[in-house]
From TrEMBL:
Keywords, in A-Z order: Membrane, Transmembrane, Transmembrane helix
Organism: Streptomyces synnematoformans
Keyword Transmembrane carried by entry: yes
Sequence segments annotated as region (Disordered): 1-28
Protein name: Sugar kinase
Transmembrane segments: 36-55
C-alpha cells in the first residue's frame, strides 16, 4: 500500500513530524512564567503589609520612648507663658509673680500646661481668685494643708520636688472642654511662696 493510498499524511497522526517537534521545542513555557508571576504577586501582597506593620510598630515604640525621655528631662522655659496658652489652660499668672517658668506637653488625647512661679501671699490670693472667677464649679475648693494634687508622673515631667516644704493644694475639676487644674502652694517662706500648677485639657 502506498502512502497516498493509506491516507496518512506527514506530520499528522500520533507522532509529530520533525517540523512540529522543532516548533514545540521553541514554544515558551507559558505556564511556568505565569506561576512565577503569581507567586511574586502573592508574596508582595502578603509581605508588604507585614513589613509596613512591623516598621510602624517600631517607629511608634521609639516615638513613645523618645517622648517619655523628653518629658522626663525637659527643662521648663523661663518667662511668661504666651497669652493664648494662659487663656486656653485658664492659668492667669498674677502681675506680682516672679521666677515664672512654664512647659506645655501635648499628647494624642490630651495636653497639659505646667507653670510655676514665686510670689507673696497677695499675689497667690490674686491668682486663686482670678482662677476661680473663670470657673462654674461650686462650691469652690480651698487649699488643704498637706495635700498635693500633682501626681508623681506630672512632678517628674516638670522636674518638681515636693519632698521639702509646707505644701497646700487643691484640685479643680471642670466639665466640658474646660481644663482641670491641680494647684500646689509651698508656704514655708511667707515672703516667697512657691506656686505650682498643672492644667490638663482633653480632646
Amino acid at each position: 500500500m502506498t502512502l497516498h493510498d493509506s491516507g496518512e499524511r506527514p506530520g499528522y497522526g500520533n507522532e509529530p513530524g520533525p517540523a512540529q517537534n522543532e516548533h514545540m521545542s521553541q514554544r515558551p513555557p507559558r505556564r511556568l512564567n505565569r506561576s512565577w508571576k503569581a507567586y511574586l504577586a502573592v508574596s508582595l501582597l502578603v509581605g508588604i503589609p507585614l513589613v509596613y506593620g512591623w516598621f510602624s510598630t517600631q517607629v511608634s515604640r521609639e516615638s513613645g520612648r523618645d517622648k517619655a525621655e523628653r518629658a522626663a528631662y525637659t527643662d521648663m522655659e523661663a518667662g511668661w507663658p504666651p497669652r493664648l496658652l494662659r487663656r486656653i489652660y485658664q492659668v492667669p499668672v498674677p502681675g506680682g509673680a516672679r521666677n515664672i517658668r512654664y512647659y506645655e506637653e501635648n499628647a494624642l488625647h490630651d495636653s497639659a500646661l505646667y507653670v510655676d512661679f514665686t510670689g507673696r501671699q497677695q499675689s497667690v490670693n490674686e491668682y486663686l481668685e482670678t482662677t476661680f472667677s473663670r470657673t462654674d464649679v461650686a462650691p469652690l475648693p480651698r487649699l488643704r494643708d498637706g495635700f498635693n494634687p500633682i501626681t508623681p508622673e506630672q512632678a517628674e515631667t516638670a522636674g518638681w520636688d515636693f519632698a521639702r516644704g509646707d505644701w497646700h493644694g487643691l484640685k479643680l475639676q471642670q466639665s466640658g472642654a474646660r481644663p482641670d487644674l491641680a494647684i500646689a502652694v509651698n508656704k514655708a517662706d511667707p515672703e516667697k511662696l512657691v506656686v505650682r500648677t498643672v492644667s490638663t485639657t482633653e480632646y
